[in-house]
Amino acid sequence: MPIDVHAHITPEPFIQEVARHGPRADVHLETRDGRRWFRHKGLTLPPLHPGQTDVDVRLGDMAKMRVTVQALSLPVFPGVLWAEPALAADLCRLVNETIAGICKAHPDRFVGLAALPAQDPSGAVEELRRAMQRLGFRGALIPSNANGMDLDSPEMRPLLAEAAALDVPLVVHPVNPIGRERMREYQLVNLVGFPAENALAISRLVFSGRLEELPGLKLCFTHGGGNFAYARGRWERGYATLPEARSKLRREPATFWRRIYVDTIVHGELALELLVAAQGADRLVIGSDYPYGMGDSDPVATVEAIASLDADDRAKILDANAAALLGLAA
Asked: DSSP class of residue 267?
C-alpha cells in the first residue's frame, strides 16, 4: 500500500481567492490557451495541473504511479506566505476544509496535511489544533522559514511544541532560500537554493537545541532533506572543533539525525543509496511532489531500483514508515 507523503493540491476555491486578493501582494493568476498559472513578484510558477483541482484525474495519476494513498498538502508556491495574517488564516481554513471533504469522500486514498499561516505562529497553532481535532488531519506542511523567520526562532517554538504535544508530524518544504538574489538565472533557486535551504533548516533545529528540548517533535523533510545527508560529517566535525557550534547543543549532533524523516526525491540511485545508508531505511518515506516536474513521477519504481534494499527495507520505505509517521492503520 504505497503511501506518498509529499503530494500537492491546489483547490479551486483557493485559486479563486488568490486571484481576488493576490494582486495587492503582486501575486497574479494568468490564463492563456486554456492553461492557468500564478506569477509571484515576477516569478512565473509552473502551470496548474488538472490533477490539482480534479480528484478523478489525480486518482488516475496515482494508479499510474502505483500509489495507494496520498497525503495532500497545499504547495508553498504561491501558498499563503504572501498574505497578511488574517487573510492567510482565512485561506488556510478554506484549503483545509476542502482537503477534509476530499478525504471524507475517499477515506482509503487520501489523508490531509494542514495548511498553516506560518508567518503568524499563534494563528498557525490555532489552525493546527482545528485541523487535527475537528477535521481529522494527520499532520501539517510548513515552510522551512516563514518570510525569513527560521524554524528555531523563539516565535516558532509554540507551533513546534504544539505539534509535539498533539503527536503529529510536521512535513517541512523548502522556500525562499537565503542568497536567492544570486540564483535568479538557470533555475538555480530550485537546483541549488532549495537543497541548501533544507540543510540549513535542519542544522538550525539541531544546533539551536530545539530538537533536544522537544523530544516528541516529529519532522519529515521533503526532497531528501536537501544536502543534509552529505553535510552531516562536516557538521559533526564542526561540533567537535568549534566552540560556537556547541553553544546551545549539549549532546553531539549525531544524536538527532535519526529523529528526522526524509522523502526519497533525490533524483539518482547513488544519492538515494547514500540517504538509506545515512538515515536508515526506517526513516525514509516516498514522495512524488505531485504534480511538479522536479518531483518523482514513479516513486515506487525509484525505491524498487535500489538493489541493496531487501524486501523488508523496501516495504518500510514504501508504506510502513509513512503509516507509522501519519498514524495510519498498518
From this structure: S
What's the whole-model pTM score?
0.95
Q: Does 30 fall in a domain?
A: no
Instruction: Dump pLDDT digits (tens) for 174-194.
Output: 999 999 889 989 999 999 999
Rounded CA separation 324/316 (Å):
10
- Tell me the residue range of the domain where 80 lies: 3-8+53-326
> What are the residues whose beta carbons fall under 8 Å from the beta carbon of 282, sequence distance 6 or more?
316, 321
**d(C-alpha 318, C-alpha 4), whole Å:** 8
Mean of the pLDDT values across residues 255-264? 95
Q: Is 190 exposed, middle or buried (0-12, 13-18, 19+ CB in 10 A)?
A: middle
Per DSSP, the residues of 91-149 read HHHHHHHHHHHHHHHSTTTEEEEEE--TTSHHHHHHHHHHHHHTS---EEEEESEETTE
Contact 226, 196 (CB under 8 A): yes
Judge whether 40 lies within some domain: no
Contact present, 201 and 172 (Cβ < 8 Å): yes
Contact partners, residue 112, CB within 8 Å, separation at least 6:
71, 72, 73, 96, 99, 100, 103, 131, 135, 136, 137, 138
DSSP single-letter state for residue 329: -
CATH number of the structural domain spanning residue 141: 3.20.20.140
